[in-house]
């Protein structure tokens, strides 16, 4: 128990690996043993991760990265086995263990060949994804990032549909290209900072001291890896093929977790690497916001032309993840918080939709929309759960999708209302294609005799879908715990990349209890200067600062006040000498 308390992240990280190693010693023809062991260790991975929820401290004086582990690994190059999580990582780790357990359970009857290899690879995939969200060393992070690539390649290429090899190779090449460019960026950052450590916080802090040219190059080096993984337009073309050809569990984990590795990378690495120079930063942020809007609209429009249910949901991920990147690069607390919550929401609702399509595929072995119709008659319980998942994905109030999208739009409105106007069109189109899909599959007469006697959901299918539906309602009705977990890490990020935000907020509404500035954060970067922002980009106020430096009209205002008066209140306040 003492080992678990001091190494909880390692236990969570390597529990799936223990299951994979154990499966190596199970005979190949013992298929039921493969299924039992695979599901057991996936469920154990979820169980051992749950204590993170109540052990994670929300105290203001708690360290930013909690449950730390730091051990020498390769001292000659400064690489360490360093783990730690903040509120953002915590939510993504729990999402990974939850969807991992559900995905493996959904594979019980769907996977009939090479079951031993399937469960070994899926458990290894879990290790890679968890490591990405926990690593605080660039070398370790890159190892986990690449470990994830190989199992997913084989899951698509061996257990996928007819064009599985094409989809697997395309996925591998796209991801590999992005990974290689990111590796060059990691090495450039490492050597530019002195070549003594791969510690992520240390290197990102050093990057803020580089000249603008280097900061721009480093941002774009990391950008390609994360943009391909999200995927952002126009790097999205691998996703529909991978989703369509992957087995059901592969599609669930691909949409639910793997895509979030890209958005997580943007938050954890790309935002701190934004150039300090206001002009360069404004240019990059504008590009990211515009590309996000294009992805939202493009993905939604393409969905309306699809004939394959799985490909339609795949393209919907391009649109939904566009909202996530829009919130990230709004550089506001609401935008960032909404983005992370929407990443969780997308994993739940889109994961449920892929499971639903998998249920139909197991019964009919087709995903063509034209092959279905009137399924609500033979499968009423299935129709009810499918409807909830659809409404969750399109953002109906009281379900999780509404919370994420609303907060993202609220945060983006603070930057420029034009971005919000375009994004709302994507929401309308999303409702159109999702309801159109549901209407064609579930309503009307049963015109195909093969659909007349389809069995409704069985106990195992209920066990995979009901937890996701419950969480969709819970987040939609009571999202406060998620916002509390995200409050401090989001505030720290905004203080770093847009330090004028909180200062302008206090200046604009002095009677409102604005979020306090956390101690220990150095506001060394200039305020965000974006056209259309609703508040003046003033720097955060400092008790020790000269009032003349904060207000250019302070000298004129002083004439109407006593010599030692504060410009804000008119009361006497002694200013220390500069």
Strand percentage lies at under 5%
Which structural class matches the secondary elements?
Answer: mainly alpha
Shape: globular
Q: Roughly how many Å apart are the termini?
A: 55 Å
**Biggest sheet descriptor:** 2 strands, antiparallel
Number of helices: 23
The count of strands amounts to 2
Series of H and E elements = HHHHEEHHHHHHHHHHHHHHHHHHH
Q: What's the average pLDDT? A: 84
Q: Give the proportion of residues in helices.
A: 55-70%
**Low-confidence runs (pLDDT<50, min 5 residues)?**
506-578
Spatial strand arrangement across the major sheet: 1-2
> What's the alpha carbon Rg, rounded to whole Å?
25 Å
Question: Can you offer a commentary on this structure?
Answer:
The protein has 578 residues and is mostly helical. The protein is built from 23 helices and two strands. It has helices at residues 2-6, 8-23, 31-49, 51-55, 87-106, 115-134, 138-159, 164-192, 200-207, 212-229, 238-245, 248-270, 278-303, 309-328, 333-364, 380-394, 400-413, 417-442, 459-477, 480-497, 500-508, 547-550, 554-558; strands at 66-74, 79-85. It has a two-stranded antiparallel sheet. Helix 3 packs antiparallel against helix 5 (87-106) and helix 7 (138-159) packs antiparallel against helix 8. The longest helix is centred in the middle third of the chain and has 32 residues, at 333-364. The radius of gyration is 25 Å and the shape is globular. The protein starts with a helix and ends in a 20-residue tail after the last helix. The model is unreliable at 506-578 (pLDDT under 50).
């Amino acid at each position: 128990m003492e080992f678990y308390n001091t190494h909880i992240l390692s236990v969570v990280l390597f529990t799936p690996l223990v299951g994979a190693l154990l499966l190596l010693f199970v005979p190949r023809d013992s298929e039921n043993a493969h299924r039992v062991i695979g599901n057991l260790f996936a469920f154990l991975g979820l169980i051992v991760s749950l204590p993170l929820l109540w052990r994670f401290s929300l105290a203001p004086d708690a360290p930013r990265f909690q449950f730390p582990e730091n051990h020498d690994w390769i001292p000659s190059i400064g690489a360490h086995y360093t783990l730690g999580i903040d509120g953002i990582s915590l939510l993504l780790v729990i999402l990974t263990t939850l969807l991992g357990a559900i995905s493996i359970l959904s594979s019980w009857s769907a996977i009939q060949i090479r079951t031993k290899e399937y469960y070994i690879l899926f458990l290894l995939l879990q290790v890679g994804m968890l490591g990405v969200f926990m690593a605080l060393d660039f070398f370790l992070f890159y190892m986990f990032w690449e470990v994830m690539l190989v199992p997913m390649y084989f899951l698509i290429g061996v257990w996928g549909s007819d064009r599985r090899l094409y989809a697997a190779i395309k996925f591998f090449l796209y991801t590999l290209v992005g990974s290689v460019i990111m590796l060059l960026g990691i090495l450039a950052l490492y050597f530019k900072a002195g070549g003594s450590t791969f510690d992520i916080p240390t290197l990102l802090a050093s990057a803020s001291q580089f000249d603008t040219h280097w900061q721009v190059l480093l941002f774009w080096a990391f950008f390609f890896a994360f943009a391909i993984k999200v995927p952002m337009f126009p790097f999205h073309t691998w996703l529909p093929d991978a989703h369509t050809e992957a087995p059901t569990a592969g599609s669930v984990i691909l949409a639910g977790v793997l895509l979030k590795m890209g958005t997580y990378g943007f938050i954890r690495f790309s935002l701190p690497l934004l150039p300090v120079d206001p002009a360069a930063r404004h240019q990059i942020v504008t590009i990211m916001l515009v590309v996000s809007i294009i992805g939202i609209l493009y993905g939604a429009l393409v969905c309306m032309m699809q004939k394959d249910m799985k490909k339609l949901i795949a393209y919907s991920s391009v649109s939904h993840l566009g909202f996530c990147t829009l919130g990230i690069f709004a550089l506001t607390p609401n935008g960032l918080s909404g983005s992370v919550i929407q990443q969780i929401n997308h994993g739940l609702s889109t994961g449920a939709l892929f499971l639903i399509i998998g249920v139909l595929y197991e019964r009919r072995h087709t995903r063509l929309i034209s092959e279905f119709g009137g399924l609500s008659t033979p499968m009423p319980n299935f129709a009810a759960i499918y409807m909830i998942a659809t409404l969750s994905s399109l953002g109906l109030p009281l379900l999780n999708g509404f919370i994420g999208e609303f907060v993202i739009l609220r945060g983006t409105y603070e930057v420029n209302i034009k971005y919000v106007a375009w994004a709302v069109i994507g929401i309308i189109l999303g409702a159109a294609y999702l309801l159109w899909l549901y209407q064609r599959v579930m309503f009307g007469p049963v015109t195909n005799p093969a659909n007349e006697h389809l069995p409704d959901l069985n106990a195992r299918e209920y066990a995979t879908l009901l937890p996701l539906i419950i969480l969709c309602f819970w987040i939609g009705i009571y999202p406060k715990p998620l916002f509390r977990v995200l409050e401090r890490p989001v505030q720290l990020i905004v203080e770093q990349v847009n330090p004028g935000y909180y200062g302008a907020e206090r200046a604009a509404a002095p009677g409102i209890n604005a979020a306090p500035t956390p101690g220990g954060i150095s506001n060394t970067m200039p305020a965000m200067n974006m056209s259309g922002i609703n508040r003046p980009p003033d720097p955060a106020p400092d008790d020790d600062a000269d009032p003349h430096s904060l207000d250019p009209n302070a000298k004129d205002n002083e004439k109407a006040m006593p010599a030692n008066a504060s410009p804000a209140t008119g009361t006497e306040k002694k200013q220390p000498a500069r």
